[in-house]
Amino acid sequence: MVQAISYLFFYENKRYAVVYKITNNLIGMVGMGLEDTLNEVEMAYFIDENCRENGYAVEALNALFDWCISVSDIKYMILTIDCANKASCRVAEKAGFELFENGV
């Protein structure tokens, strides 16, 4: 893993594959980038519908979050999710995110 990273390079939008270890099959993605309207670093994720409810999204979010915090001076990151998507809300909660604002 890279120990030093350029400040500007870090804030470019990045997407990483989420791969099932046993088969090496692609099962989703996790990423982060600068959210322009809030000027904050936002995380995103997607897990194939056949692989959901196994903790993969939480594991991927936690791994990316831990890495980003360790190689930068970022104190926090955000997720923007639809509160009607209960599964996504559970992923956010299990990954340690807290509800900051409810747009409803």
TrEMBL record:
Keyword set, alphabetical order: Transferase
MF GO annotations: acyltransferase activity, transferring groups other than amino-acyl groups
PROSITE patterns: GNAT
Taxonomy, superkingdom: Bacteria
Domain N-acetyltransferase: 1-104
Protein name: GNAT family N-acetyltransferase
